[in-house]
What we know:
4 copies of one chain form a homotetramer. Chain A is mainly alpha-helical. The first copy, chain A, has 9 helices and no strands. The longest helix of chain A is centred in the last third of the chain and has 24 residues, at about 120-145. The termini of chain A are far apart. Chains in contact: A-B, C-D. At the C-D interface, α1, α7, α8 and α9 of C face α1, α7, α8 and α9 of D.
Amino acid sequence: xxxxxxxxxxxxxxxxxxxxxxxxxxxxxxxxxxxxxxxxxxxxxxxxxxxxxxxxxxxxxxxxxxxxxxxxxxxxxxxxxxxxxxxxxxxxxxxxxxxxxxxxxxxxxxxxxxxxxxxxxxxxxxxxxxxxxxxxxxxxxxxxxxxxxxxxxxxxxxxxxxxxxxxxxxxxxxxxxxxxxxxxxxxxxxxxxxxxxx
Amino acid sequence: xxxxxxxxxxxxxxxxxxxxxxxxxxxxxxxxxxxxxxxxxxxxxxxxxxxxxxxxxxxxxxxxxxxxxxxxxxxxxxxxxxxxxxxxxxxxxxxxxxxxxxxxxxxxxxxxxxxxxxxxxxxxxxxxxxxxxxxxxxxxxxxxxxxxxxxxxxxxxxxxxxxxxxxxxxxxxxxxxxxxxxxxxxxxxxxxxxxxxx
Amino acid sequence: xxxxxxxxxxxxxxxxxxxxxxxxxxxxxxxxxxxxxxxxxxxxxxxxxxxxxxxxxxxxxxxxxxxxxxxxxxxxxxxxxxxxxxxxxxxxxxxxxxxxxxxxxxxxxxxxxxxxxxxxxxxxxxxxxxxxxxxxxxxxxxxxxxxxxxxxxxxxxxxxxxxxxxxxxxxxxxxxxxxxxxxxxxxxxxxxxxxxxx
Amino acid sequence: xxxxxxxxxxxxxxxxxxxxxxxxxxxxxxxxxxxxxxxxxxxxxxxxxxxxxxxxxxxxxxxxxxxxxxxxxxxxxxxxxxxxxxxxxxxxxxxxxxxxxxxxxxxxxxxxxxxxxxxxxxxxxxxxxxxxxxxxxxxxxxxxxxxxxxxxxxxxxxxxxxxxxxxxxxxxxxxxxxxxxxxxxxxxxxxxxxxxxx
DNA sequence: TATGAATGAGTTTTCATTCAT
DNA sequence: AATGAATGAAAACTCATTCAT
Lengths: 198, 198, 198, 198
C-alpha cells in the first residue's frame, strides 16, 4: 500500500519535472502534470501542497545532490604540483558536468527557471549560488596561498569560474544533443587554470 | 498631440520594464503596468497589442543597442601586438558592461527571463545568444590565425568567454549595489586572454 | 463483533455532533468527523450513507426525545386550578429545558442550523416546529375553554410561547456557561401564564 | 459612468439577497448571483471582494436600519400611564415588524442564517443581538422603576421579549403569505405587557 | 486619444465519495 | 469490518482583453 503510494508520488514528480522543463513553471498547469503522470487531479494534492511546493521539492532534491558533490571537493586547488591540481580540478568538473547532464531538467529548473520569474524562487537559487561561490572562493585562496594560482580577488575569480561553468554548460546541454563530457571538462579545466595563472 | 501620445507610450514602457523586472513576465499584470504608468487600463492597448508584444518590444530595444555594440567590435582580437589586443578587448568589455549596467533591467529581462519560461521567449534569447557566440567565435579565429590565441574549438572558446561574461556580470549586478566597472573589465580581460593562451 | 461495530458508529456520531456544532453543516468535512472519531475515511460510509444522512440521523435522534416529551404533556393547561396548571407547565418547561441543555449541540443543530441553510434541512425543522405549535395550540384551547387562559387566536398564542421558549433558551445556553434551570423555568412559566391572562 | 457602475452594484446586491435567501449562504454560488444579476462572473469581483464580504455588506445594511429604529425607542416603557406605555410599545413593535417584513430576506439573512453556519458569521449576529437585549433591558428597568413593570431580572425579561418577538415574527413571515401587522403588533404588545405585570 | 467598467475563459484547490487491499 | 489512496466534479477567483463613452 505504502509502496504504491510512493510510486504514485514518483510518477507525479517525474511528470512535473518534464512539464516544468517543457513549459516553465508559470505556464504548467496542475492538469498538465497529472495528465502526464496518469493520475487524477486530486491525487496531486495528496502528495504535494501546491505547484510552488513541488517546484521547491524538485529544486531541493537537486540541491542535495549538488551540495554533496561540493562537499567532496574540499581540497580542490590543493596538491603537490600544478599538474596534480589540474587533474583534481578536471575530475571535479567532470563529476559536476556528469551530474548536471544526468539531471539536466532538474538542474535547469534550479539554475535557470529559479533565477528568473521575478523573485518567486530566487531564495533557493541565490542561496545555492552563494554557497557555490563561497566554497570555490575558499578553495581558490588555498591555491593562491600555495603559489599555484594568481588573482586579485577570490570572489571575483570564483564568480568567473562558476559563471563560465554554468553558463557554458547550459548552453551546450541546450544546443547539442550529445557532447563529449571528457573533452569539455578538459577544455574547461585548462581555460580556468590558464585564466588564473600569471 | 503626437508628442503627448509618445510620452504616454514611454511612460508605459518604463513602467513595464520596472514591473517585469520586479515580478517576472508571468506575474506582472497589465493592471500593475498601467497603475505604475498612471494611465488607464485601456490605454495600454492603444500602444501595445498584448503583454507578449510589449515584452518583445523591450527585448528588441535592448537587442538593437547590444548588436550595434557587437558591430563596432568587428576587428576584435586583431591587433599589432597582444597588448594592443588586450586593450581593444578591455575597451569592448567595458563598453558592454557599461551598456548592461545602464540598462540592467532590460538586459536581465532578455538574458535571464528570456532564457527561462519554457520556451515562451526563447526565440529572442536564443537568437541573440547564438549571434553573440557566432561573432565572438569568428573574431577568436582571427586571433588564433594571427597566433595570438590558442584554443581547439572556436565555438567552445566563445561559449566560455560569453558564459563567463554574462553569468558573472549578472551576478555582480544583482548582489553588488555598485562595483568598479574598470576594475571588473580589466580582470575579465586578463582572465580571458590568459585562458586563451598556451 | 457487532458490539464493536456499534461502538465505531457511536464514535462517529459523537464526533459528527461535535464538529457540526463547531463548524456548521456545510463547513464540516467528512475528514474532520473521522479524524475526531479516530477512524478511517472509508469507515464513515460503512455506517452512514452521506453527510446529509448523518445530519438527518442526528436530528431525528433528538426529534424522538423531543416528541416523547411532548406526548407526555397531553393534559397541559388542564387542571383543577390555575395553580395546578402553573405547576404542570413549570414541570413541563423544566423537562424541556433539561432535555435541551443535556443535548445542547443536537438541539442547536435541529433548531438553528436546520432553520437556516436555504431549505436544505428545512423539512425536518419545519415539520417539528409545526408539530410543536399545533400541539401547544391544542393544549391552549383546552385552557381557554376551561376559562383559565385568555387569547384570541391559539396559533398566535402558541407561536408566542414557543418563540419565547426556544429563542431565549438558545440565547442563555449560548451566552451563559451555567444557569439555574429551576429559576429560568419558573420565570418562563410566570411570564407565559401572565401573558395569557386577561 | 459612475451612475451605471452603481446600478450594476445594486443589481448584484439585489440578486445576492435573493439567492442567499433561497439557497443559504454556503449553497449559493457566485455564478448564481451573477446569473440572476445579469452580469459576468468577473463583474462581481469589481464590486465585492468575496462571497463573505457581500454577505457582511448585506447584513450591515440591515443592521443600520435596525439600529436606527432602536435609537428612536429611547424612552420606551416611559410614560404617563400604563396605557401610554402600551401605545408607545405598540407603535415601536409595529415599526419593527414593518421594517422586518419590508426587508424580510435581509432580516432573515442576519437573524437566522447569521445565527447558524458554525460561527462563520456569528460575530455580526451576536453583536446585534447583544445590542438589542442590552437596550431593551435598560428600557425595561425604567418601566420597573416607575412601577409599571414587574420582573426579577432585566436581562431575562429582555430576552423573553426579544425571543418572543423575533422567533414568532419569523415564523409568521415564513408560513403566512400575508398577515395583519396591526393585529400581530397589538397581540404582541398585550402579551408582553401582561407577561411583565404582577 | 484616453478612460475604466465589463467580460469570460482559464486555473487552482477542495472534498464527498468510491474502491482495491 | 476497516483502511486510506485515489477520484473528479465543482467552485472561487484572476486577469488579459474588449468596448461603449
